[in-house]
Design a protein that fits this description.
The structure holds two protein chains of two kinds. By secondary structure, chain A is an alpha/beta fold. Chain A has eleven helices and 16 strands. Chain B is mainly alpha-helical. Chain B has one domain. Chain B starts with 15 loop residues before the first helix and ends in a 6-residue tail after the last helix. The chains are: A alpha/beta, B mainly alpha.
């Protein structure tokens, strides 16, 4: 058996471009269709969502796949769980060919997509699990025992017979994860598992993911939360514009920009003209700003080769004109800074 | 959360029996969810009355104050009970209409709810998701027909002049054609995202061409030719003959044969369209798009 739970080579996925979406298109190498009845051919514009992804995920590891919105991570996951067929390239999941042995791939996977919406709200938690156990071809007697185990493990016992529509988001997410674990699959694909959960529920879910790794599951995780990826992942792949642009351990990724410092500012009355001025300072790069929940205060992050030299000019540009420096820190690069360094975007962009 | 001792052999056991078990689970799920929307009881009690009433009251008005016009109706149709005649036609129309909405939009509704992908992720044969919708639909439709018979028997004194079993046989023979068309619709709806125009078109065709309240012999020749290509024409004709004209199995055979052939055709078309849609969805990502 291969050492890799997931082994993908040069995966490509192209979609017909939809007009008005602003998706990048290409036509030169795209298939051409006939325009009836004149026999002329017009190029069919295509949008490349995934553009040659190579991915080798070892058995038993947690692999974090990070990327900004539209980078191709969901398309990659959807290909790996057989919902989408690759345009080209090959992939094996648990040793099974993604296209030719799709059913064996599905049997090898527990997938969490769309979280709480992936289960039936008009069924109880128990009914949901019994239903999906049948879809995964688990014999009825085994299924009953397995459902009870998972209800207990997910701490749903007291409310397992209530309709899911009465559950909290965290409880629904736990049912969805129990569904993914039903058939005891060796590989789990978890797409944004903690999205929308309160901090306590998210923490418990992260603990569960760590437990699942201890039990030997291979986990492919996508998340918008850098700290989560940093804390859980053995290795991280950063995907942007359909390609894996960096792949390493969290520490390895951080070392890539260790020689840089990160300047974090909080500024009141921020506007884009200041951003342009700061970007013009020598040694300043990857400036990202975002408004905080507190009105009119912006968090501004930038990377600097020599922060001491840059600071006086930063302060000079910010002071006056209705802007005010509220707070300033110079910190070590985090995984998010690595991400910004590589993609030029914040993860939530 | 309690730790789990696990060895990674999947608990799933593929095979024919497992597919049957999955099919039963889909059917049970549909039935359970159907029952949890209480409005179905009201719909089941009121709808059988409302739609035919429109035609029945029109018929009464046209027959004159003394009902003398009914003799003309009997002469034209050969039917003595014009209420029973209309109820059979409208029931078939409503059956096809409900199937187009229920089965035709079943996958689309799952897609909107967000559960289609989670079903699609399992190793179950995907056509089972459509077949599984059919069982509860047939049960609710059988209840609909039963309630129709009871309500019109009690309120309007409609009585059978034939065999209830032969009428049921015609209904049974109609199932593949009615649901095959529903399967074809379901595949189109998931591809086009909406198909209301098609539903209106099909039910309009049935209403005009199949003679739900009048004999198709009244139609111009070209319309009768169109009617001959619609299975609902044979359903209505066969059920009227079985329920109100004492027809024998031999009398019904031409209708039954046509329904079996239409059933084979529409089931094949439904399956092929589903297979095409399923493959196209894998290529275009249509399953995950709202």
């Amino acid at each position: 058996m291969s050492d890799f739970a997931i082994d993908a080579t040069q995966l490509v996925k192209k979609f017909p471009a939809r007009p008005g979406t602003g998706n990048k298109t290409e036509s030169a190498s795209a298939p051409r269709r006939r325009r009836w009845p004149f026999g002329k051919r017009e190029p069919k514009a295509m949008f490349t969502a995934v553009n040659g992804v190579d991915l080798q995920i070892k058995r038993g590891e947690i692999f974090g796949l990070l990327g900004p919105n539209g980078a191709g991570k969901s398309t990659t996951i959807r290909m790996l769980c057989t919902l989408l067929e690759p345009t080209s390239g090959t992939a094996h999941v648990n040793g099974f060919d993604l296209v030719k042995q799709a059913n064996d791939v599905r049997r090898s996977l527990g997938t969490l997509l769309a979280g709480e919406r992936s289960i039936y709200w008009k069924l109880t938690g128990r009914e949901n699990l019994e239903y999906f156990a049948a879809l995964y071809h688990i014999p009825a007697t085994v299924a009953r025992q397995r459902v009870e185990e998972l209800i207990e493990r997910m701490e749903l016992k007291d409310r397992a017979n209530e309709l899911v529509e009465k559950y909290s988001t965290g409880m629904r997410q736990r049912v969805a994860i129990a569904k993914a674990l039903l058939a005891r699959p060796p590989i789990l694909l978890l797409d944004e598992p903690t999205l929308g959960l309160d901090p306590q529920a998210a923490r418990r879910l992260r603990e569960l993911i760590a437990e699942l790794k201890q039990e030997g599951h291979t986990i492919l995780l996508t998340t918008h939360y850098m700290e989560e990826a940093d804390q859980l992942s053995d290795r991280i792949g950063i995907i942007d514009t359909g390609r894996i642009i960096a792949l390493d351990t969290p520490e390895g990724l951080k070392q890539r920009i260790e020689q840089k410092e990160v300047i974090r500012l909080e500024v009141a009355g921020w506007h884009e003209e200041i951003a342009d001025k700061l970007k013009s300072i020598a040694g300043i790069e990857n400036l990202i700003s975002r408004q905080q929940a507190e009105a009119d205060v912006w968090e501004v992050n930038m990377q600097a080769h020599n922060s001491r030299a840059a600071l006086p000019r930063i302060v000079e540009h910010i002071s006056g004109n209705g802007t005010r420096l509220v707070n300033m820190n110079i910190v070590k690069p985090s995984l998010e800074d690595v991400f910004i360094h590589l993609t030029g975007k914040a993860l939530r962009d | 959360m309690r730790s789990e001792m696990s060895v990674f052999s999947s608990l799933g056991k593929p095979g024919f029996l497992s597919e049957i078990q999955a099919f039963i689970a889909i059917t049970r799920r549909e039935w359970t969810i159907f029952r949890r929307y209480p409005s179905w009881i009201i719909a089941l009690l009121i709808w059988p009355l409302i739609f035919p009433m429109m035609y029945i009251l029109t018929g009464r008005a046209l027959s004159g104050p003394d009902g003398s016009g009914l003799a003309v109706f009997t002469k034209t149709t050969g039917a003595t009970d014009f209420i029973g005649y209309i109820v059979i036609g409208t029931t078939v129309w409503m059956w096809q209409n409900i199937v187009l909405w229920d089965v035709g939009f079943s996958l689309r509704n799952e897609q909107m709810r967000g559960t289609l992908e989670s079903n699609w992720l399992s190793p179950t044969w995907r056509f089972s998701y459509l077949l599984g919708h059919t069982g509860p639909q047939i049960i609710s439709m059988a209840m609909f027909v039963l309630i129709t018979a009871v309500e019109f028997g009690l309120l309007f004194g409609v009585k059978l002049h034939g065999s209830i079993w032969l009428a049921a046989l015609v209904m049974l023979a109609s199932i593949p054609a009615v649901y095959g068309l529903g399967f074809a619709f379901a595949s189109l709806v998931i591809t086009l995202k909406e198909a209301h125009a098609f539903v209106f078109l099909v039910r309009g065709l049935v209403m005009i061409f199949c003679g739900i309240t009048f004999p198709i012999s009244l139609l111009p020749g070209w319309m009768q030719s169109v009617a001959a290509w619609l299975p609902q024409t044979y359903m209505i004709h066969g059920m009227r003959a079985a329920a109100f004209a004492n027809a024998s199995l031999t009398d019904l055979w031409p209708d039954l044969r046509a329904l079996i052939l239409f059933g084979a055709f529409w089931l094949t078309v439904g399956y092929l369209l589903f297979t095409w849609m399923e493959r196209r969805a894998r290529q275009t990502g249509a399953i995950g798009q709202y």
